[in-house]
Amino acid sequence: MDELETRIKRLIIDSLKLEDLKPEDIASDEPLFVEGLGLDSIDALELGVALRKTFGLTIETVTDDVKLHFRTVGSLARFVRSQQKDPQHHVA
Length: 92
Hints:
Elements: H1 3-15, H2 41-55, H3 64-69, H4 73-85
Helix pairs in contact: 1-2, 1-4
């Protein structure tokens, strides 16, 4: 399992208090909302705050791009990596 994806899975579990889940319970390509993990808009806000704090990301308000980034753990990992390439958003 990809290290960044594992970090994001732990972040989801910790920030949303999903204690019954383990990182390996969340597939990287599983939808996070509705039919997948079942997260809702409040969860998205909390996850966005956690991502900002953890990775120092700038996340624009709700746009189609943000919806795509938040679709799966894999898409979140790609978004974090893309921000790493931008010197203003380097993830430590």
